[in-house]
Design brief:
The protein is of the alpha+beta class and 88 residues long. The protein has two helices and three strands, in the order H-E-E-E-H. A three-stranded antiparallel beta sheet has the order 1-2-3. It binds zinc ion.
């Protein structure tokens, strides 16, 4: 078992609790870190008035927004979390 496998389950359980969803889909989003790049990840917003191409976070969006401090890291974390969706 890899170290990734060791941490995957508890992280999935925690994020499920925070999002009230078993396996939410994640997106890269603009956080409130003051930069012009999308450096956060958040669950995909399913509000019909929220354009899927709009990376902003509004009142309609589910929490949490997780700050990743760079777009590169945010892309990676979102991809990692979404890859884990198919494993649940
Ligand atoms: Zn939204």
């Amino acid at each position: 078992m890899s170290i990734l496998d060791v941490y995957r389950g508890p992280a999935r359980d925690l994020l499920s609790t925070l999002t009230d969803e078993t396996a939410p889909e994640w997106r890269v989003c603009f956080s409130e870190d003051g930069t012009d790049e999308p450096t956060g990840v958040a669950p995909v917003c399913t509000d019909e008035d929220h354009d899927p191409d709009d990376g902003s976070v509004y009142d309609c969006c589910p929490e949490p927004v997780i700050e990743c401090h760079s777009m590169t890291t945010a892309d990676y974390v979102a991809a990692l979390l979404n890859a884990d969706r198919s494993r649940s």
